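Appendix B: complex inputs.
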Amino acid sequence: MTNFLSLADVTDLNALIQSGLDAKANPFADQQLGKNKTIGLIFFNSSLRTRLSTQKAAQNLGMNVMIMNVGQDSWGLEMEEGVLMNGDKAEHVREAAAVIGRYCDVIGIRAFAELKDRDKDYQEQVMHQFARYAGTVRRPVPIVNLESATRHPLQSLADCITIEESKAKLSLARPKVVLTWLPHFKPLPQAVANSFCEWMNARAASGDVEFVVTHPEGYELAPEFVGNAKVIYNQDEAFAGADYIYGKNWSSYTQYGQVLTQDPSWAVTMDHMNLTNNGKFMHCLPVRRNLKVADNVLDSPQSLVIEQAANREWSAQAVLKEILQNLA
Amino acid sequence: MTNFLSLADVTDLNALIQSGLDAKANPFADQQLGKNKTIGLIFFNSSLRTRLSTQKAAQNLGMNVMIMNVGQDSWGLEMEEGVLMNGDKAEHVREAAAVIGRYCDVIGIRAFAELKDRDKDYQEQVMHQFARYAGTVRRPVPIVNLESATRHPLQSLADCITIEESKAKLSLARPKVVLTWLPHFKPLPQAVANSFCEWMNARAASGDVEFVVTHPEGYELAPEFVGNAKVIYNQDEAFAGADYIYGKNWSSYTQYGQVLTQDPSWAVTMDHMNLTNNGKFMHCLPVRRNLKVADNVLDSPQSLVIEQAANREWSAQAVLKEILQNLA
Amino acid sequence: MTNFLSLADVTDLNALIQSGLDAKANPFADQQLGKNKTIGLIFFNSSLRTRLSTQKAAQNLGMNVMIMNVGQDSWGLEMEEGVLMNGDKAEHVREAAAVIGRYCDVIGIRAFAELKDRDKDYQEQVMHQFARYAGTVRRPVPIVNLESATRHPLQSLADCITIEESKAKLSLARPKVVLTWLPHFKPLPQAVANSFCEWMNARAASGDVEFVVTHPEGYELAPEFVGNAKVIYNQDEAFAGADYIYGKNWSSYTQYGQVLTQDPSWAVTMDHMNLTNNGKFMHCLPVRRNLKVADNVLDSPQSLVIEQAANREWSAQAVLKEILQNLA
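Resulting structure:
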């Protein structure tokens, strides 16, 4: 693994999931691997889990961590090529990425979708510009996606780890996993939902899960992410017999960035969960209680949300371990 | 010691003070104790001394430190139970605390009083919610108070250490310690004053000091903090024969959060200090010079304010050492 | 070296440059030197390169690093003596510096010019107040300038290292170095230009370079910085035969803090570079592309800007190494 921008960078998903579980069982086993290696964590947006879990994972591996909030610790970065920089961006990503790449062995980047221009968001400009300019042919600097405009692969890997752990406990061979849209008053990116589809489709292809997506009409995700997943517009029907309910809000992809409905009946309550096969509830967090999910679902033994967040540490550690092993 | 929220969490105050003095004499003696242990420092409010001294103390003990400014690095947290989260708080403390607790072995929290609703402030909701949700029965995650709505125990412990050191140098058996209110134009929390009362009352009960509080009428502190301390409304009378003058402003507790007077005659000048028994001046800092205390007091050899702040490192180290020793 | 505030603190410039090159060749050779030593990096202003490179250099030397953004992590600091502190500054530098000095073995400070009051800026109040109050005679706490109102010596040292490296590669005995003003719409400090003059004048005095400054009329730098450098108002004439072009914008010193012209003909293009002796282009970054320098200059093999920024790590490491060696 050089970069970790999406599932496409993973050569062996089963091995990566197992590596996460190994890290969880023995967090400090590879502490020599990161000695005198530095990861820079660059945040264009706020973060709680990603910030702390990635820092922790890096430290478990013996790495040094440097954190920078762009536009707060430093200044805004221009991403477009060939422009006359007479606006509010004081530095170009060509310089910023190259310079950070000289100080760091690995760079993590968080940059959300702006939800204004779909093509621009889906081009993943920030990730690609950093990947292009951070290193050189002779000294590549791996880029780790800490949630980008269209994907959140460290979350998806943690989700895979969580389902794998839970499956084993429950002795489920090929559980039914349902991604359900949840209501929200603010327009949120599609990144977590896209990424979850991408990774669950891979797990479905290898026979590890059955994967279903449910959402109101108008909330269809991009075809390249939905892939062959079964899409059901009736939430109750989708929930029937489900082993894992994965809740998430996203704004419309087709009417880009818009909130088309806030229909509260899509919020997950115990009545919904009772339709499942004693299913577990998952959410990437943060979650607005009683708006998206009822208190009694989140506080029930059926909720996996804390374990899922805890597994972020091990997904980051699995990825960083493989990246460190590939560094010269 | 599991949590360190207030004096009630201290089992042996003399031993804790001595542990701070030992750390000061030999800062790196326990560097193996914190190996592969991580403290998360979570700031709802600004900080200089607490931020740096706690980080330093943790590093002296060999710990890793992760720092997060809530609402700046991440987003606002909902503290109330059972609410529909459709406002500006994106995450509930139930999730945030539990997740941070999974990444950290110890959590420090700073969250000031809002000074709007006395009952709410005095319930210490933020500390208690973190203490409730950060860990589990099987894996408790100690919470360290980095200044809460009503207390600042790391400051009070540093104050005890400072007085202990100074007493020994000056060969004072049972010095007279006076907490005096100081004028200020802004409404400040009662936390430092409350906490100082709590800890000095304990020192008075064991015969280590005599403790007196002086302030204008209307600035009476909460009864549970004043305890048996002698309250004198005449500042000159209170200062007579004092060995230690501890200055602090606070807003009214009875007319909650209000500035009732800014009477400049309560500011500590050399004239005031001359009423004492060649007394030392203490203040937790930051201090507004010439508004609360005259330059020539702060710059005189009678001032202990820098030593007091320096002792914050050792109070934090004593607390963290005991917490680490109690971790499995 | 005790403090590193300006060139005046350097006893042997050649040795310091060599120390930087040695660190670059062998970054972790002195990792025992900084063990259990802590540097505090205090930012009154934003930073990217300085923040990351100084942190990295300190970690290479085995130091612990604590970072604080004044006015964001903490509150504003009063720098004036004897004032009644009834404004927006909650703490005086006398206390802040002394306290930070008790937690840190070395302190780095970044504080830009305000460009309102020339005398005030040129007195370098922030640096001098920290240098005055951070330590004591018995325990001095070295102050490192991370860019002050009138100087940026870590940048200048990196510039010297960069020229030295490049000179050796190009077998240049005494290259012609030209500092040129560049256009910008915002008033920027003179710090980088001042400092570059100060250090290049020293290099010129020892016969290592020939140094020329070029800028529009009205942009004359302070006499104490320009020194004996040759000033040419015609940019083309100055560029003729140059080996190194060092670009930088600054606001007027004589009409203090004003933007007198934004003449785009002063921006460096390939046409300008073609006047030189196949010269290299340097800039401290951040640089606004196509406003100050054309894309094709920055992206050409003639550009040294990334190497220059990379050398910030080694200039910081050379300085910190010497400071650590001088600590008791």
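Chain B has two domains: 7-151+312-326, 155-309.
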